[in-house]
Amino acid sequence: CSSLGTYDLSASTFSPDGRVFQVEYAMKAVENSSTAIAIRCKDGVVFGVEKLVLSKLYEQGSNKRIFNIDRHVGMAVAGLLADARSLSEVARDEASSFRSSYGHDIPLKHLSDRVAMYVHAYTLYSAVRPFGCSFILGSYDKDDGPQLYMVDPSGISHGYWGCAIGKAKQAAKTEIEKLQMKEMTCRELVKEVAKIIYIVHDEVKDKAFELELSWVGEVTNGRHQLIPEEVRQEAEKYAKDSLEEEDDSDEDNM
Amino acid sequence: MLQETGTEWLSQEVKTGTTIIAVEFDGGVVLGSDSRVSAGASVVNRVMNKLSPLHDKIYCALSGSAADAQTIAEVVHYQLDVHSIEIDEDPQVRSAATLVRNISYKYKEELSAHLIVAGWDRRDGGQVFATLSGLLTRQPFAVGGSGSSHVYGFVDAEFRGGMSKEECQQFVVNTLSLAINRDGSSGGVAYIVSIDEHGTEEKVVLGNDLPTFFDQ
């Protein structure tokens, strides 16, 4: 999929085979980023992000990749972090403006549609470049239940039961598909999400990483929050133990 | 006794003098209004329906300046049309009330109207909201218009929670009748709208069918 001639210089140009290369290049930026996943279960949504730590001098917990959009919506991102931060502000403004006008929480599909429309607008003109990030939005509402949507740089959004973005998204999707998420609760799911991030993390190419975990569901009364310390420790322990088991079983095969 | 040359009514503001009321019951709401529109001492319309639809299951009751109230209702009707298509479901009563309140508050110096918003949605069932002067408050029932001051005692004494739809309709019609009897700016017929999950029902109670009290 190499570009032909001069069709890849601006987002306002189609290639002869009907592609907009600038948008495809933006998606490459997402693929080079570390992985983020989110899974929707019976009573909520759990987010997990593999946050690569490039220097030991960084303060722990800086450059978070999970954002709060209003009280009831969480957003996990992959790609150019500055682009993602800018879009989180857009999402916050949309949610805030909706609440001002209509007096209640913004429905997640509507928020997803509005931000996707904004992202899409940046794929139409040569004066700007597309956003180099994808993001996953999740929420929980006692009437509508848990919802999960993902938006990519082309401005498309889909609803999901489980979703992965970033460099190991294929491996993560394979693991996610093994789960029966519709029958699980958030508490059960946190451990699985932590395990998947540990599984897809490449020890050789990328060294240290921080696991960012958050959830929104019945367990949090509909508020999106970072996972509490005891739950996170239990989840990380489960993840590390599962990996050791797999290592051990590999040795047996020899 | 009334020293008028006869043309004052042409220049006086057209007000829906009015009595309006909305009551919540378990599963829906009942709205009611009189039908008199006055310009000064003149009745310019004796059969105006002051219960205006904002959406299939959300209505508002108009009082104050007829033009201001109607315009707010029409604008919010349009906004809810767009909103319901954008979110792909029926709007919440709270949304309708918030839209009305936002206009009433922003233009409170220029406008002179009070709308009561009431309806049914699948999340919270029947709801009544008052938006007087640009506030927003949910209430078990609300009354408004010039006739309402004559019936505060009646509604405060007679309202009970847990009434059925039919009891609410009777309560509304009794209130309107008493207000019409005492308030010169209220009169004509009574319009009643009942909304629940099954649909919306509009009814008219003609003048001579209104309940009578001690003086009739």
From TrEMBL, chain A:
Domain Proteasome alpha-type subunits as annotated: residue spans: 7-29
Intracellular or extracellular location(s): Cytoplasm; Nucleus
Coiled-coil ranges (or none): none
GO cellular component terms, semicolon-separated: cytosol; nucleus; proteasome core complex, alpha-subunit complex
One GO process term, biological-process aspect: ubiquitin-dependent protein catabolic process
Regions of compositional bias (Acidic residues) in chain numbering: 243-254
Keywords: Acetylation, Cytoplasm, Nucleus, Phosphoprotein, Proteasome
Disordered: annotated span: 228-254
Gene3D superfamilies membership: Glutamine Phosphoribosylpyrophosphate, subunit 1, domain 1
Annotated SUPFAM superfamilies: N-terminal nucleophile aminohydrolases (Ntn hydrolases)
Compositionally biased spans, kind Basic and acidic residues: 228-242
PROSITE patterns reported for this sequence: PROTEASOME_ALPHA_1, PROTEASOME_ALPHA_2
Subunit structure, as described in the record: The 26S proteasome consists of a 20S proteasome core and two 19S regulatory subunits. The 20S proteasome core is a barrel-shaped complex made of 28 subunits that are arranged in four stacked rings. The two outer rings are each formed by seven alpha subunits, and the two inner rings are formed by seven beta subunits. The proteolytic activity is exerted by three beta-subunits PSMB5, PSMB6 and PSMB7. Interacts with AURKB. Interacts with CDKN1A. Interacts with MDM2 and RB1. Interacts with the C-terminus of TBXA2R isoform 2. Interacts with DNAJB2.
Family affiliation: Belongs to the peptidase T1A family.
Protein name, UniProt field: Proteasome subunit alpha type
Native organism taxonomy: Eukaryota, Metazoa, Chordata, Craniata, Vertebrata
From TrEMBL, chain B:
Molecular-function annotations in GO: threonine-type endopeptidase activity
Gene Ontology annotations of biological process type: immune system process; proteolysis involved in protein catabolic process
Domain of life: Eukaryota
Active site residues according to the UniProt entry: T18
GO cellular component, one term: cytoplasm
Subcellular localization: Cytoplasm; Nucleus
Record's keyword annotation contains Cytoplasm: yes
Swiss-Prot/TrEMBL catalytic activity: Cleavage of peptide bonds with very broad specificity
UniProt-listed PROSITE patterns: PROTEASOME_BETA_1, PROTEASOME_BETA_2
Main localization, broad class: cytoplasm
Pfam family, one: Proteasome
Keyword Nucleus in record: yes
Keywords from the named record: Cytoplasm, Hydrolase, Immunity, Nucleus, Protease, Proteasome, Threonine protease, Zymogen
Complex formation: Component of the proteasome complex.
Cited PANTHER family: METALLOPROTEASE TLDD, PROTEASOME SUBUNIT BETA
Task performed by this protein: The proteasome is a multicatalytic proteinase complex which is characterized by its ability to cleave peptides with Arg, Phe, Tyr, Leu, and Glu adjacent to the leaving group at neutral or slightly basic pH. The proteasome has an ATP-dependent proteolytic activity. This subunit is involved in antigen processing to generate class I binding peptides. Component of the proteasome, a multicatalytic proteinase complex which is characterized by its ability to cleave peptides with Arg, Phe, Tyr, Leu, and Glu adjacent to the leaving group at neutral or slightly basic pH. The proteasome has an ATP-dependent proteolytic activity.
Family: Belongs to the peptidase T1B family.
Name of the protein in its database record: Proteasome subunit beta
Organism of provenance: Gasterosteus aculeatus aculeatus (three-spined stickleback)
